[in-house]
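S.,

As promised, the magnesium ion run. Input:
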Amino acid sequence: MMFVELSDVDSLGRSVDERERICREAITKWGLNEQLAQLSEECCELGAAANQLRRDRKWAREGVIEEIADVVIMCAQVGMVIDPTGKDVEQAIKQKLARLEGKLRAT
Ligand SMILES: [Mg+2]
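Predicted complex:
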């Protein structure tokens, strides 16, 4: 189960089921440890891209988008192993959004 909401069909005509199948094939082929390392690497790349965009480098927008995609794909793969139903991640998202909303209302 993907815990990130995706459109029903992507621009290449892949359905959510196909995306899930590809992610499942990847995590099965390379295993959790390797994909955790890849997740870590992609998160670092996203952080670097975010900093470039923050420095007002307009050309960096595409890089941030690509790195977000990489991180989403890696999160999907890791999530398939550590939270197969997606319920725990969903619960954590709900709690964090509630906390964020609390901060918004407090300021
Ligand atoms: Mg990347």
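Residues 16-106 form a domain with the Helix Hairpins fold (CATH 1.10.287). Residues 42, 45, 67, 70 surround magnesium ion (CB under 6 Å).

- D.
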